[in-house]
Amino acid sequence: MTGRGAVRVxxxxxxxxxxxxxxxxxxxxxxxxxxxxxxxxxxxxxxxxGRPQLVGFHRSTPYDVLLIGGLWTAQxxxxxxxxxxxxxxxxxxxxxxxxxxxxxxxxxxxxxxxHDVGRVPPLGATVGSPVVVVRDxxxxxxxxxxxxxxxxxxxxxxxxxxxxxxxxMRAATLVGVQRISPQEARQTGxxxxxxxxxxxxxxxxxxxxxxxxxxxxxxWVMTNATDAEAGLLGTARRMD
Length: 240
Fold this sequence. Notes:
Number of helices: 6
Helix content: 10-25%
Distance between the termini: 79 Å
Shape: globular
Strand content: 15-25%
Largest sheet: 8 strands, mixed
Number of strands: 10
Structural class: alpha/beta
Low-confidence stretches: 1-25, 29-39
Order of helices and strands: EEEHEHEEEHEHHEEH
């Protein structure tokens, strides 16, 4: 632009970075290129090769998790979910088992709340205030208004297989199975399409080991407590 009143732009303004040739990589070396890209979420443990395994509870779509296992693992997951910024709501018939965790979590902030079975109020989950509901309601969790929804995930704990377990396994997006009896392992294997090796391994699992299943994916995960978690919850255990 020229003439009186014209504005002349002499070039880009602001800080200029270093000038260098673009990064290049031979096509033959592309197979060796890896980037640390993955889901963010709650660290649930490590796989057989020592790699951290995460579950993304914060989702814009409903997300249901079923854990057939021990209270200890469910409580570790609840603590870690709270540490990622979730409000953790526990629906339980045994509040005495959770009260210490609720008091210790959040350094005095009410980030873990306890409610009697069937008495969970509307939670108002949003992208800025996600919720993880832990249902610790025994062998037959009642159907209720506590359901997964956008930004509200539900983790249901079953201590063992029960008549409602098949329905819950088929409905869940993610299923975790800890040590169970051989008969329960066979039933679980039929529902989740496990291999014979996986079925035979389930009755022999050590403390803190979980087989996590999602669709056709299978991951053996070992959950180890941090010092703070061990101080509050003790060491990993399947039986409560």
